[in-house]
């Protein structure tokens, strides 16, 4: 049977509370007594019960991760990396899916928040005031969303989008389409960044959408791309890009001969598609470590100003981009 704290107290000749203080807050116990308690604990092989300690301190040693769509292949590597990062620091990570619906997100937060010490919320659908209120009650880190007074990991696509625009410009493309998969999300920063980058490189940009960020969106968008006589497409994410590739092939259009296609995320889909997908990479390990470290820090200390941490992006050129078809130049 496991050695109890009472047995350590008896062996050291002190009270149970003194053993607890000596092991958990040693500065409150004099050196001689502390050494006696530690020696007794080591001799008996005593290991404190972390669950009991967490209960006393009102902590769960668990973190929550709320994502918009668990079927999107972008998220499993993120979840796994966050889980590993949290585990190394003594935390369990609980994950839930809001299905990209505000009502479901509210309901899930209400249920999960009682079981965790803090929440990471990815691409929240909630109004800013709701997020600010939530962050006032418990540690919260937002990813891909901004709200006043709420800590954030900002995934900046600025560099990756600029590189994509430069890449397409170098291949002679002039008429491009952006397939907007932002749905009815409050944050429109992605489309603004894309417009600014393409304008800066002198590229004509036709925006279609917004739709949901799903494979079916790309299937729907492909004939619209051809109708606009565009030679290049930037999709909201890799999943949408895969839908575009699928339907362009069905319509007899060659990629990249007739149309070049660029995704965003650099999921496993990008490297296994035929041809392989040119995409803007977001490093899941960096996002995971930044978000988990920031949240754990907030569970111990809440700074006066909410910290914002930035993660960058870069273009990964592959097989779906090439020279614009000659008649379009």
UniProtKB/TrEMBL annotation:
Residues 3-57 form the HTH lacI-type domain. One of its GO terms (molecular function) is DNA-binding transcription factor activity. The keyword Glycoprotein does not apply. Keywords: DNA-binding, Transcription, Transcription regulation. The keyword Transferase does not apply. It comes from the Bacteria. This is LacI family transcriptional regulator. It comes from Jiangella anatolica.
């Amino acid at each position: 049977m496991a050695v109890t704290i009472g047995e350590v107290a008896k062996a050291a000749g002190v009270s149970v509370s003194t053993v607890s203080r000596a092991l958990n807050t040693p500065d409150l116990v004099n050196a001689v007594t502390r050494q006696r308690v530690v020696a007794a604990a080591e001799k008996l092989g005593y290991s404190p019960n972390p669950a009991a300690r967490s209960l006393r301190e009102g902590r769960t040693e668990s973190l929550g991760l709320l994502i918009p769509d668990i079927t999107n292949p972008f998220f499993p590597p993120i979840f796994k990396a966050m889980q590993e990062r949290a585990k190394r620091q003594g935390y369990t990570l609980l994950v839930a899916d809001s299905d990209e619906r505000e009502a479901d997100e509210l309901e899930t937060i209400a249920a999960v928040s009682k079981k965790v010490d803090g929440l990471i919320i990815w691409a929240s659908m909630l109004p800013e005031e709701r997020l600010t209120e939530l962050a006032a009650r418990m540690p919260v880190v937002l990813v891909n969303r901004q709200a006043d007074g709420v800590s954030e990991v900002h995934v900046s696509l600025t560099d990756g989008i600029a590189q994509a625009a430069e890449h397409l410009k170098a291949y002679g493309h002039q008429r491009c389409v952006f397939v907007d998969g932002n749905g009815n999300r409050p944050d429109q920063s992605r489309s603004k960044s894309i417009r600014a980058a393409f304008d800066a490189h002198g590229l004509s940009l036709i925006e279609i959408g917004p739709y949901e960020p799903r494979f079916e969106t790309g299937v729907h968008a492909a004939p619209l791309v051809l109708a606009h006589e565009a030679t290049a497409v930037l999709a909201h994410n890799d999943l949408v890009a895969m839908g575009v590739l699928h339907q362009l092939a069905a319509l007899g259009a060659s990629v990249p001969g007739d149309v070049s296609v660029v995704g965003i995320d650099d999921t496993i889909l990008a490297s296994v598609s035929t041809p392989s997908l040119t995409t803007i990479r977001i490093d899941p390990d960096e996002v995971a470590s930044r978000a988990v470290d920031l949240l754990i820090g907030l569970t111990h200390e809440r700074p006066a100003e909410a910290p914002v941490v930035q993660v960058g992006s870069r273009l990964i050129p592959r097989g779906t981009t090439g020279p614009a078809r000659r008649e379009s130049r």
